[in-house]
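Quick note —
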Amino acid sequence: MAITSPCAGTDGPACGPIRRRGSSMRLHDPGFLAALETRLQNGEHLALYGPRGSGKSTVLAELESRLARAHVPCGRATVTASLDDVTRALASAYPAVDTLEVARRTARYRLWTAADRRAGVLLLDHLDCVSNAMVSFLRRLHGGVVGVLSAVDVDDHRERQNMKPWRFGALSVRMPLTPTRRLRRFLHARRESLHLPPLVPEEEQRLVAAAKGRPGWIVQCTDLAREERYWHERRLFLTVLCTDTETAVRYGALELVRPSLPRH
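Predicted structure written out below.
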């Protein structure tokens, strides 16, 4: 089996800068990222859960960079919907392991053996559809073999109930929301970097309130606000913009909110 690289019970403050189109700002307490890194290097399995757009993917990307600087084997899956996604991420952490032209089970055994010799970290973003096979394999990585951080999108009580991190032996870690003051500064930075018209206080207040502590919501909102259809005489159509942003963030599909291009 050819393994290619993946597609590119504790609550506390999270950290990590948001970098997008020229704006960079640290939005959370940096101590949380260091604590996560330590726990992962100790072999713990954690499930980082929170709303879409709250910054979980940014935390995973920052952890990947930190672990690379520390020369710790680390693999990251940007989407985790099957055991093959987990396998590809693990293969990227141990690139010297020969997984070509072998069965999937053999490839996973070789990767597990490499991790048993030298402990690493596995970062699984957007974890979904946890199969029995995936649960079994993740449990095999316990005991100091590989630390695992799974990011799980949870927007409501039903999704929280269905999460069940104990199935794959993980402890829950809540992704806290970004404080309003920092979110407002981030909105200012995004607006300036994208050269958007100035916002009146009422517009700014409504956008920050609609974001509900999610920096990813601000990123999506300001990206959409670059389109002329959301403006009239340099004032925003706030209700439409907020509705479209929420749809794009929740479902990850801009085609749901952007008008179809005319066919020629």
